[in-house]
Specification:
Elements (H helix, E strand, L loop, with lengths): L3 H12 L5 H8 L3 H13 L12 H5 L2 E9 L4 H9 L4 E6 L6 E7 L2 H12 L4 E9 L7
Antiparallel strand pairs: 1-3, 1-4, 2-3
Length: 142
Protein backbone atom coordinates (compact mmCIF):
# COMPACT_ATOMS: atom_id res chain seq x y z
CA UNK A 1 0.00 0.00 0.00
CA UNK A 2 1.30 3.44 -0.94
CA UNK A 3 1.62 5.99 1.86
CA UNK A 4 0.35 9.56 1.62
CA UNK A 5 3.92 10.91 1.45
CA UNK A 6 4.64 8.51 -1.44
CA UNK A 7 1.55 9.78 -3.28
CA UNK A 8 2.80 13.35 -2.84
CA UNK A 9 6.25 12.34 -4.10
CA UNK A 10 4.74 10.60 -7.14
CA UNK A 11 2.59 13.66 -7.90
CA UNK A 12 5.67 15.90 -7.82
CA UNK A 13 7.54 13.54 -10.14
CA UNK A 14 4.59 13.42 -12.53
CA UNK A 15 4.71 17.20 -12.74
CA UNK A 16 8.47 17.18 -13.35
CA UNK A 17 10.47 13.95 -13.28
CA UNK A 18 13.72 15.95 -13.41
CA UNK A 19 13.13 17.62 -10.05
CA UNK A 20 16.25 17.17 -7.92
CA UNK A 21 16.21 15.09 -4.75
CA UNK A 22 17.03 18.25 -2.78
CA UNK A 23 14.07 20.14 -4.26
CA UNK A 24 11.75 17.17 -3.67
CA UNK A 25 12.90 16.99 -0.05
CA UNK A 26 12.25 20.72 0.41
CA UNK A 27 8.77 20.49 -1.13
CA UNK A 28 7.89 17.47 1.01
CA UNK A 29 9.51 18.90 4.13
CA UNK A 30 11.65 15.78 4.50
CA UNK A 31 15.36 15.07 4.54
CA UNK A 32 17.18 14.38 1.30
CA UNK A 33 18.10 10.86 2.46
CA UNK A 34 14.46 10.09 3.37
CA UNK A 35 13.28 11.09 -0.10
CA UNK A 36 16.08 9.16 -1.76
CA UNK A 37 15.19 6.05 0.28
CA UNK A 38 11.47 6.42 -0.58
CA UNK A 39 12.33 6.68 -4.27
CA UNK A 40 14.50 3.58 -4.07
CA UNK A 41 11.73 1.63 -2.30
CA UNK A 42 9.16 2.76 -4.87
CA UNK A 43 11.47 1.68 -7.69
CA UNK A 44 12.19 -1.70 -6.05
CA UNK A 45 8.48 -2.28 -5.45
CA UNK A 46 7.79 -1.62 -9.13
CA UNK A 47 5.69 1.46 -8.43
CA UNK A 48 8.17 3.63 -10.32
CA UNK A 49 9.44 1.88 -13.43
CA UNK A 50 11.45 4.73 -14.87
CA UNK A 51 11.58 8.41 -15.69
CA UNK A 52 10.66 9.81 -19.07
CA UNK A 53 10.75 12.89 -21.24
CA UNK A 54 7.69 15.07 -21.70
CA UNK A 55 7.87 16.92 -25.00
CA UNK A 56 7.12 20.61 -25.38
CA UNK A 57 4.06 21.88 -27.21
CA UNK A 58 6.08 23.29 -30.11
CA UNK A 59 7.67 19.89 -30.81
CA UNK A 60 4.39 18.01 -30.40
CA UNK A 61 2.54 20.39 -32.71
CA UNK A 62 5.00 19.46 -35.45
CA UNK A 63 4.23 15.75 -35.17
CA UNK A 64 1.63 13.85 -37.13
CA UNK A 65 -0.05 11.18 -35.01
CA UNK A 66 -2.38 8.36 -35.92
CA UNK A 67 -4.28 5.53 -34.30
CA UNK A 68 -3.71 2.39 -36.34
CA UNK A 69 -6.13 -0.50 -35.88
CA UNK A 70 -4.38 -3.76 -36.75
CA UNK A 71 -5.89 -7.16 -37.59
CA UNK A 72 -3.33 -9.89 -36.86
CA UNK A 73 -3.11 -13.56 -37.81
CA UNK A 74 -3.70 -15.34 -34.51
CA UNK A 75 -0.55 -17.49 -34.56
CA UNK A 76 1.69 -14.50 -35.33
CA UNK A 77 0.47 -12.11 -32.63
CA UNK A 78 3.64 -12.34 -30.52
CA UNK A 79 5.92 -11.92 -33.53
CA UNK A 80 3.92 -8.91 -34.71
CA UNK A 81 3.95 -7.36 -31.23
CA UNK A 82 7.74 -7.72 -31.02
CA UNK A 83 8.19 -6.15 -34.47
CA UNK A 84 5.98 -3.20 -33.53
CA UNK A 85 7.81 -2.75 -30.21
CA UNK A 86 11.08 -2.32 -32.13
CA UNK A 87 9.59 0.36 -34.41
CA UNK A 88 10.56 3.70 -32.80
CA UNK A 89 7.59 5.57 -34.25
CA UNK A 90 5.09 3.25 -32.53
CA UNK A 91 4.73 4.94 -29.15
CA UNK A 92 2.08 2.62 -27.69
CA UNK A 93 0.38 -0.65 -28.56
CA UNK A 94 -2.88 -1.89 -27.06
CA UNK A 95 -4.65 -5.25 -27.36
CA UNK A 96 -8.33 -4.60 -27.96
CA UNK A 97 -11.60 -6.45 -28.44
CA UNK A 98 -13.68 -6.26 -31.59
CA UNK A 99 -12.95 -6.51 -35.29
CA UNK A 100 -9.30 -5.53 -34.88
CA UNK A 101 -6.81 -7.08 -32.46
CA UNK A 102 -4.56 -4.11 -31.65
CA UNK A 103 -4.36 -0.35 -31.79
CA UNK A 104 -0.96 1.26 -32.30
CA UNK A 105 -0.26 4.91 -31.62
CA UNK A 106 2.13 6.16 -34.29
CA UNK A 107 3.98 9.49 -34.36
CA UNK A 108 5.84 10.85 -37.38
CA UNK A 109 7.59 14.04 -38.46
CA UNK A 110 5.45 14.42 -41.59
CA UNK A 111 2.55 12.90 -43.51
CA UNK A 112 5.06 11.38 -45.92
CA UNK A 113 6.90 9.66 -43.06
CA UNK A 114 3.57 8.52 -41.56
CA UNK A 115 2.58 6.99 -44.90
CA UNK A 116 5.87 5.09 -45.02
CA UNK A 117 5.43 3.84 -41.44
CA UNK A 118 1.90 2.68 -42.20
CA UNK A 119 3.23 0.77 -45.21
CA UNK A 120 5.89 -0.82 -42.97
CA UNK A 121 3.24 -1.90 -40.47
CA UNK A 122 1.01 -3.31 -43.21
CA UNK A 123 3.96 -5.31 -44.60
CA UNK A 124 4.76 -7.04 -41.28
CA UNK A 125 4.34 -10.80 -41.20
CA UNK A 126 1.12 -11.52 -39.38
CA UNK A 127 -0.66 -8.28 -40.24
CA UNK A 128 -3.82 -9.05 -42.22
CA UNK A 129 -5.07 -5.46 -42.55
CA UNK A 130 -4.93 -2.04 -40.94
CA UNK A 131 -7.21 0.95 -40.59
CA UNK A 132 -5.67 4.33 -39.74
CA UNK A 133 -7.12 7.48 -38.25
CA UNK A 134 -4.91 10.57 -38.33
CA UNK A 135 -5.29 12.71 -35.21
CA UNK A 136 -6.24 16.23 -36.26
CA UNK A 137 -6.31 17.88 -32.84
CA UNK A 138 -5.96 16.89 -29.19
CA UNK A 139 -8.85 18.35 -27.23
CA UNK A 140 -7.33 17.32 -23.89
CA UNK A 141 -4.97 14.73 -22.47
CA UNK A 142 -4.53 13.64 -18.86
Amino acid sequence: MIKLQDEKLIALLRANARTSISDLARMLDQSRSTVQNRLLKLEQAGVIKGYSVEFGEEYLEGLVSAHVSIKVKQKLTTQTTVALKHHNNVTALYAISGEYDMIAIVEAQSLQQLSSILDDIGDLDGVERTNSSVILETKFKR
